[in-house]
Write a structure and sequence with these properties.
The protein has about 325 residues and is of the alpha+beta class. The chain has six helices and 16 strands.
Length: about 325
């Protein structure tokens, strides 16, 4: 087995990766040794301490790990789990809090006005290593990082924490997105019927998401009828509703009730409620479709491709 160590650029030679071969050690023994030594890692890939941009007792934020643009951060829990559902509530919320800090650092560093945030949660959506992690990609106005906004997601589809894994590309799973010309706005009845199915699922598996009465929701300047809302957090600060033009079956949106365009504009209480609700909605949708993975994505700001100036998470099961 080999322990792969990523070092910050300049720590060895510019951009060079160091591979320490430990013949005779199984992957399990290697990972246990890494845990004893307290080495930061993404599954079997061990990251140099110089690559740590921020850390808590539960989460790391890494920089210079196969970055797709300058300032690209990768946020991962210290505990190696494949799916975010395997994290405790405290670990899960801390991961998103560290992602918030990493986003602030990356945007300040690059002078960015927006960020793409992506969690490929499971092998079925192209997770490159069995360790949950969040990408934070700062977007700078006027730059040519990506000719089209959606290309950032295609680039992240191919991303892996080492050049060798990226070259092999065995993890790559691309969402089959129909061209805009083939997508249509669904009818109000189609969307209400879909929401009713999710409400029935929630009644069986997570009844706290069902309010005493279903509210209409203002998604920026758009009005979402109550019939299309299928989950409301117990605090009523967050809602989930069906999508007018989904990319795949089960593609739904989660938003705060308060209209804000950027994640950093949410209060601490709203932020916690938001991510708690994303987690519960993801579990609900995966159960409904018998899915084994989900893509969780945020286009946080106009320069990241945000089409509606109201914070929203895309949940797409697979």
């Amino acid at each position: 087995a080999a322990l792969v160590f990523i070092t910050r650029r300049g720590a060895a030679q510019a951009g060079q990766r160091q591979v320490w071969s430990m013949s005779g050690l199984s992957a399990v023994v290697s990972q246990c040794l890494a845990a004893v030594l307290g080495l930061p890692r993404l599954a079997q890939v061990h990251i140099g301490r110089g690559n740590i941009a921020h850390k808590t007792d539960k989460t790391f934020a890494f920089t210079e790990v196969q970055p797709i643009v300058e300032g690209h951060m990768v946020v991962a829990p210290r505990r190696c789990v494949e799916r975010s559902a395997q994290l405790s509530d405290a670990e899960y919320l801390d991961m998103w809090q560290v992602a918030r800090v990493a986003q602030s650092l990356a945007e300040q560093w690059r002078g960015a006005s927006a960020s793409n945030i992506l969690l490929k949660d499971g092998a079925a959506v192209g997770q490159p290593v069995p360790h949950a992690h969040v990408h934070v990609v700062p977007r700078v106005p006027g730059t040519t990082d990506f000719a089209l906004n959606d290309l950032v997601f295609q680039t992240l589809d191919a991303w892996a924490p080492t050049a060798e894994l990226e070259r092999l590309g065995t993890h790559v799973v691309k969402l089959k997105v129909p061209p805009d010309s083939e997508r249509r706005d669904r009818t109000q009845q189609e969307m209400a019927d879909e929401a009713a199915g999710y409400r029935a699922e929630a009644a069986k598996s997570d009844s706290e998401l069902i309010p005493l009465s279903w509210p209409e929701h203002s998604f920026s300047r758009f009005s979402v009828p109550a019939e299309q809302v299928f989950a409301v957090s117990p605090t009523s600060m967050t809602v989930a509703f069906v999508n007018l033009r989904p990319l795949a079956p089960g593609h739904v949106l989660v938003t705060p009730r308060r209209i804000v365009s950027r994640l950093h504009e949410l209060t601490d209480a709203e932020t916690e409620d938001f991510w708690r609700t994303v987690r519960r909605v993801q579990a609900l949708i995966e159960h409904h479709f018998d899915a084994t993975a989900s893509t969780i994505g945020v286009q946080d700001g106009k320069d990241a491709g945000q089409s509606v100036p109201h914070v929203h998470v895309h949940v797409i099961p697979a």
